[in-house]
Each structure stands twice: as structure tokens, then as C-alpha cells.
Specification:
heterodimer, A: 113 residues, mainly beta, four-stranded antiparallel beta sheet, 0% helix, globular, B: 115 residues, six-stranded mixed beta sheet, five-stranded antiparallel beta sheet
């Protein structure tokens, strides 16, 4: 089934550890996005990529990095996790940057302790 | 980036009533206006969208209206049912320049439909 896949589904992480959240899509979409969703705060854009080889900063990029080596993969890395990064993380993709339907992964629930 | 404001943050209605959620945006060059529904434990899913060349679009019980002059678009749900209970988001992409492709979402509206 075509779509967007995130891994892991959930993770408990010790503060200070490095963690990479994986996101893969098989729809050949040009643009990909990472969001965090905290209780009562909606979806906040962390980083995005309009096409392979390019990335941009969203609303809350501090403490996170991304790379877009190819069309399908868009990993999100927390270099040194802190408790405030406890959240649900969603990856999404669109065929064209920001102007077509966004498809979301199932989310990664991350707890930093 | 695009500044998107969504209201209300919560909405409670009786089954069969109508619900309206409004979203305002800042970038006059925006031309794509989607609405997403998020059910508990899932990622958001598109329910309806509209482009700037039309003023209204309907799909069964849901509709979206666009007022480009006032820079707002609204989601209308008629004959609400308990399964409409969810969180609804509007989205507004950055139209150009350094904001190109920066897909941001409104704050979300928690809709509760009481049987």
C-alpha cells in the first residue's frame, strides 16, 4: 500500500542521547515535512524539504536536524534529547511544496526522561 | 512564513446541528486552502480543499468557502454526527520567497458532537 511510514512507533529515550526518527514515502512526492504535536498546541513545523537535496527551517527547528539525500527518505535527528522534546512527531509529504494534499505518517510518540 | 489563525479552539454541538470553523491567513498570494481531520491516535487526513479560483466547494455534508478579499476560509459541516467528533485543522502554505513550501497549520479546533 502506497503511503508514508514512520519508525519507531514509540520510544522512551534518556536525556542527552541521540535519536533519529525515520520517515519513508513511496509516492515519489517532492516535498516532505516534520511536525511535532504537543497536547493542546496543534501541529508545529520543525523542518521541511521542498525537493531532494534541499531543506528549510520551520517554526521550531532548534535541537533538530534533517537531511534529504533522496526523494523517499527524510530522517529527523535529535542530537542530544531534552525532556521538552517529549511529543508526538508526524512526518508528511506533498506532491508539490505546500500546494497539494498532505499525506501523514502514523506518528512517533517520543518520551524523553 | 504564512500566518494562519483558526477559530474557535473548541466547538460543541448537538447531533444534527451545523458546525463552522474559520481560518484567516496573511499571505494574499496563497492559492490553496485545505482542511484536515485528525482522529484520536492518527495522523491528519485531508477532508476537503479549495483553490483560489472558486469561492465554494461541497462534498456531501462538508463544504469550504473562501473569501479572498477578507483573507479567510471556513469549513462547514451540516447535519453533524457523533463520528464527526475530531480535531480539525486548516493549513496555509508559504506562497513565495523564503516561505515557499513552508506548510503551516492552524491551531486546531476540537469538535465534539453530542448524541
Amino acid at each position: 500500500i502506497a503511503g508514508i511510514t514512520q519508525a519507531p512507533t514509540s520510544q522512551i529515550l534518556a536525556a542527552g542521547r541521540r535519536m533519529t526518527l525515520r520517515c519513508t514515502q513511496d509516492m515519489r512526492h517532492n516535498a516532505m515535512y516534520w511536525y511535532r504535536q504537543d497536547l493542546g498546541l496543534g501541529l508545529r513545523l520543525i523542518h521541511y524539504s521542498n525537493t531532494a537535496g534541499t531543506t528549510g527551517k520551520g517554526e521550531v527547528p532548534d535541537g533538530y536536524s534533517v537531511s534529504r539525500a533522496n526523494t523517499d527518505d527524510f530522517p529527523l535527528t535529535l542530537a542530544s534529547a531534552v525532556p521538552s522534546q517529549t511529543s508526538v512527531y508526524f512526518c508528511a509529504s506533498t506532491e508539490r511544496p505546500g500546494r497539494t494534499e498532505a499525506f501523514f505518517g502514523q506518528g512517533t510518540r517520543l518520551t524523553v526522561v | 512564513g504564512e500566518n494562519v489563525e483558526q477559530h474557535p479552539s473548541t466547538l460543541s454541538v448537538q447531533e444534527g446541528d451545523s458546525a463552522v470553523i474559520k481560518c484567516t491567513y496573511s499571505d494574499s498570494a496563497s492559492n490553496y486552502f485545505p482542511w484536515y481531520k485528525q482522529e484520536l491516535g492518527k495522523g491528519p487526513q485531508l477532508i476537503i480543499d479549495i483553490r483560489s479560483n472558486v469561492g465554494e466547494k461541497k462534498d456531501q455534508r462538508i463544504a469550504v468557502t473562501l473569501n479572498k478579499t477578507a483573507k479567510h476560509f471556513s469549513l462547514h459541516i451540516t447535519e453533524t454526527q457523533p463520528e464527526d467528533s475530531a480535531v480539525y485543522f486548516c493549513a496555509g502554505p508559504g506562497a513565495g520567497g523564503t516561505s515557499y513550501g513552508k506548510l503551516t497549520f492552524g491551531q486546531g479546533t476540537i469538535l465534539t458532537v453530542h448524541p
